[in-house]
Amino acid sequence: MIRSLLVISIFAAAALVAGAVLDPRGYIVRVVCLMLLAASLGQCWNIVGGLANQISLGHAAFFGIGAYTTTILQIRYGISPWIGLFLGAAIAGLVGFLISIPTMRLKGSYFALATLAFGEACRIFATAAAGLTGGPQGISVPFVGNSWAMMQFRGAGPYVPILVGLFILISVIFVVLSNGKLGYLLRATRESEDAAEVAGVNTLGVKLAGSTISAALTAVVGTMFVQFNFFIDPDIVFNPTSVSIRAALITIVGGVGILTGPIFGAIAIVTMEEVLSAYLSNQAAGVAPLIFGGLLIAIVLWKPAGLSAISFSRKRALS
Fold first, then answer.
1. Cα–Cα dist 46/256, whole Å
2. Tens digit of each residue's pLDDT (9 = 90 or more) over 13-33
């Protein structure tokens, strides 16, 4: 635990230093923000996917609900995103609770497919409800100038402390859950649901609790995403590939169920994406995604337990 907290502290401190020292409108600071968003998204998924082993592919639904709730409140009623994010989290948590009642009874691939279908249904609804969401054209968030109250800034630099705070908050919640009663019950359910039920654990109840918390926090990440990018449409925020599968991928590459897993996963994936995009995006079509996929396969084959396992492996090797 001490090692994990130290890694998080170093990651947060490095991000804050980069945001304070480097050009706030520069490319590197923007990449740091993308890493923080990716790590936060992965940590949200880690609560339900890591602690309970529920492979959800529907987190795009909660991400989109948070993004659209905050944006609509801001544009139509002038409500600050700092307030809107709480309503978005509440709605996403409620939706996550309701959709989990039937889906959490499913196991393995059936649960994954059910959550994937739910996320896709949300994308179709948002596309059709043009009067509310802007439809396929999306919604642009009007820029009102540098404003902490409206969470808007010209460069990426001021977003760094906000996103660092978000990641630390989600990580603290993960630690509290993981080391508390709910965390032990989730892990018991993960190891053997039948055995947990025999021992008197309400497995459906603990999975519902984990899913609700994960959904609410994912909506907050969605809020931060739209404030950072100033534009959303259904294909961006409800996208199963760039949100749901990406959240799972970040955690799997870094280490499922491990506090530092999303950090390592976010650094690896965002770095690969940016490097390949910079050097190969103008080459033959499909080369960059092909290499990206090959690298991910190589990482998973090299370290099936995730990149977080490297430090622990070295410790055991030296002992």
1. 7
2. 999 999 889 988 899 999 999
